[in-house]
């Protein structure tokens, strides 16, 4: 048909609030359920020099290699003194942190590797994940998917 019935999106640093196309479609043709909200944490290996700090600031990131899975957080930082890499998902970002001593951002509770540590960031960087579906198309399959997400994550 050329259209999706459902979708999963992330909203980093309230990036979607500034997206005029998305805002125009929301509640008109698309409905949204938020299934996760929280702050981004800085993720580093236990061997990284930043792992010894209790709170991270922007200046701590100077001259670091940052790995992003989404460009939303990049819009809120001065990254001119950083090397930037973009990967497809959080597991790849974790691998870069371990193998190449890079730094990444993700919700702290998404980091499941015990060789990595989440550190709080001084400035609040929000992230949320949303389940989208076509308005008026709440089928049994969509309800099943939504129920599953509700059982795993509670906003």
Structure in a nutshell:
The chain is an alpha/beta fold and 155 residues long.
Key traits:
seven-stranded mixed beta sheet; 3 helices
Structural features, described:
- By secondary structure, the chain is α/β, with parallel strands linked by helices.
- It starts with 5 loop residues before the first strand and ends with a helix.
- Helices cover 19% and strands 32% of the residues.
- It contains three helices and seven strands; from the N terminus they run E-H-E-E-E-H-E-E-E-H.
Would you spell out the secondary-structure blueprint of this structure?
Blueprint (H helix, E strand, L loop, with lengths): L5 E7 L7 H6 L4 E16 L19 E4 L14 E4 L3 H11 L2 E5 L8 E4 L6 E9 L5 H13 L3
Parallel strand pairs: 3-4, 3-5
Antiparallel strand pairs: 1-7, 2-5, 2-6, 2-7
Into which percent range does the helicity of residues fall? 10-25%
Structural class: alpha/beta
What share of residues are in beta strands? 25-35%
- Could you say which overall geometry the principal axes of the C-alpha atoms support? elongated
Low-confidence parts = none
Order of helical and strand elements: EHEEEHEEEH
Mean pLDDT: 80
The profile of the biggest β sheet is: 7 strands, mixed
Query: Rg, please?
Result: 17 Å
């Amino acid at each position: 048909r050329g259209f999706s019935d459902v979708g999963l999106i992330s909203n980093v640093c309230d990036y979607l609030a500034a997206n005029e196309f998305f805002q125009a479609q929301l509640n008109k043709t698309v409905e949204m359920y938020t299934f996760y909200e929280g702050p981004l944490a800085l993720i580093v290996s236990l061997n990284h020099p930043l792992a010894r700090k209790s709170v991270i600031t922007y200046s701590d990131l100077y001259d670091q290699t940052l790995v992003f899975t989404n460009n939303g957080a990049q819009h809120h930082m001065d990254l001119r003194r950083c090397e930037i890499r973009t990967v497809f998902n959080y597991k790849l970002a974790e691998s870069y942190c371990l193998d190449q001593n890079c730094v990444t951002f993700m919700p702290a509770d998404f980091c499941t590797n015990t060789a990595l540590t989440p550190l709080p960031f001084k400035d609040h960087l929000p992230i949320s994940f949303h389940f989208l579906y076509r308005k008026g198309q709440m089928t049994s399959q969509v309800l099943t998917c939504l129920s599953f997400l509700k059982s795993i994550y509670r906003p």
